[in-house]
Every structure is written in C-alpha cells, then in structure tokens.
Amino acid sequence: MDVLTQGLLGAALSQSIANKKETRLATGVGFFAGLIADLDILISSSSDPLLNIEIHRHFTHSIFFVPIGGLIAALVLWPVLKYFFKTVSISFKRLYVFCLLGYSLSGFIDACTSYGTHLFWPLYDERISFHIISIIDPIFTGVLLFAVIKAWRDRRPRLAHYGLLFCGLYLLLGALQLHRANDMAMELAQSRQHEVEKISVKPSMANLLLWRSIYISGDKIYVDAVRPGITSSKTYTGDSVDLFIPERDATGIPRDSELYSDILRFQEFSDGFIALEPGKENLLGDVRYSMTPIKIATLWGITLDKDKPDEHAHYGFYRATSPDDREKFFLMLLGN
To answer: What is the pLDDT of residues 215-230, one digit of tens each?
Structure first.
C-alpha cells in the first residue's frame, strides 16, 4: 500500500505491545520500521528501466526477510536514540522487538493489494496478490491514522488494538467483496458465451465498492466494471483489445534482442495481460490497471522502438485522466 499506511500499520503493531511509558517511543520506532521495506524502490538502473519494477516489493517484502529488516531498522535507530535522545531508556533487545513488529506486516499488507509481492521468496519466486484492497484506501488509512494518533496522544496502547481489529475486519470485507465481484465478472463472461482463460478482478482506486474485471478469452482482453452492492449489484460494460502475443505480434524485433527480452519480462510482470495501447501503436501496456475501470488506458507500459532493438525498452507512467473519465468513475462508484 502507500507509504503512509505502511508506516501507520508498523506504528500500530509496535504500540500494541508497548506499556504506557513506551507508547510514544514505540509509535515512532514502528512507523520508521514500517517504511524500511519500501526502500527497495531506490534500486534502479539507468540502462535497464524494468529492473526497478521487477525488484520493487521483492526480497525486502518476503516473510523470511522480516527478522533482517527489523534488525536493519534497529541498527539504524539505536545510535540515533543514544546520541540525540539520551533521556530515552531502552535496551537494544526491546528496540529490536518494536522494529520487528513494525516491519513484520509490510509484505503482507502489500500482498493484499493487486500489485502483489514476492511474499515467500526465495522458496516461491512468484508475486502473491490477494486483490482485496486498493493500493490507496482512505477509509483503511484514516481509521488507522486516528487510532495511532489517539494511542500516541493518550499513551493508551489498547487504542492501537482497536485500530488493528478494524483493519483486519476491513480486509475480510475486501475478501468478501472480491468473491462477489469475481462471481459477477464470471457471469458476465458466460453471458457473452466466452471461455475465460485467465481472469483478474481487483478494487478500483480507493474503494471496495467498484471493481475492475479483466479477463482473457481467445485472443482478446475484455475489461468491465462490477459493483457488488448491499441490496443490488450493477455491471458496467467496458472495452476490449487484442491480446499481445510476443511470438506473433513482435514483428520486426529479433528474438535475441534486448527489446524482445524486455517484452517477455514485461509480459511476466503483467501476468500476461498486455496489449498495445489503442491509438499508440508503439506503447505496450499493462491492461490490469487504469484510472477508469472500464477503459483500456494503461497506467504504465513500455515503448517498442523497433529501430533500436539492442537497447532496453523505455518504461513510462501514464496517469492523466480527463474530467469526463473522473465523472464516469464517480457515477459508477455511486451506482448510477
């Protein structure tokens, strides 16, 4: 999830085992430890743009890296506390426990999103994605923020327990909504008499009401939106696009070139949901994501420059949305 939520979750976990006197220290330590895992975003290569998306949420988010991540946070904070906060009395062992808890759920909460993490690396080197919460969710983050601040201000660790309990229940609600949304998406595909080869259903931005459905049938990718409501549910028909199959569609690109290798890497990263962006013949996009749930309008993709097959593909972000797209999103979110 976003870095604020990562830090707040770490702070709440550290607060949850603190005594009254330790609450404020545990808040800061846990918040810091909760951010450490996402420092892998700094690993990049100017010559290989895809390295960053491959390594982000990789080994630092593995459950097997948690003890090491907690230790790194403790080693960084220990001299800071001893030098700048000399009045703070805490053993390194206790500091490590706070850091360990603060770091512990970084990989798990990211796995709850649709982006996914290498949660069980090195035993299992595939991204794990539960698809039960958006990368940004103001309700989840807002309640957690309130609980953490309240616990810090009142020195009452029990308030962190309430915040964590809410988070757990909210994730369970996300799992329920995912199940309902997936059923709706499959029913829609069956009504079209499509044989679904692969499907991905995920919450749209910042909510658990409106879900984006993407499935592959034949040589096409179909994108729709479903809204599994409490009393009634709605389906919004979206766009479709030709599935990009490298062996067939990467014409004019040598199979032993860097560019073709990058296409295969991007295909693996995108779980096979790749297509040329409509109106942009050289932009190969990850169809799983879009600011508008029913559109083929990728958030990120690679540029296929056939004149430079021996160079790595350019990787870029495309997050612009029109006022009309934003209006449609909110109307669908409201069930209109």
So the answer is: 999 999 999 999 998 8
